[in-house]
Amino acid sequence: MLANPTSTRVADTTRRDAVQQRVNEYNAALARACAAFANCRFDGNVVATFAFTSSHISTLDYFHPSVAGQAKLSEITWPKTPYGG
Description:
The protein is mainly alpha-helical. The protein has two domains: 1-39; 43-85, no CATH class. Helices cover 44% and strands 0% of the residues. It is built from two helices and no strands. It has helices at residues 10-35, 67-77. It is flat and about 45 Å long.
């Protein structure tokens, strides 16, 4: 998934498109499952559609959120909770 992130080669773009499709399917399944329970909260895809920048990514593994990324995730998801509204 993370190999050759800026490549425009067909194999790389096809792989990234397949990963994105799987993410979309997963988020749709989460939304459907959450809709079945009154107290379930779904973020409405705010995390999936957020455009992370390099400052949001940890330099320890280049995958998980950095401290700034964690703060941004909190900022965009908190309003989706019963406590943030």
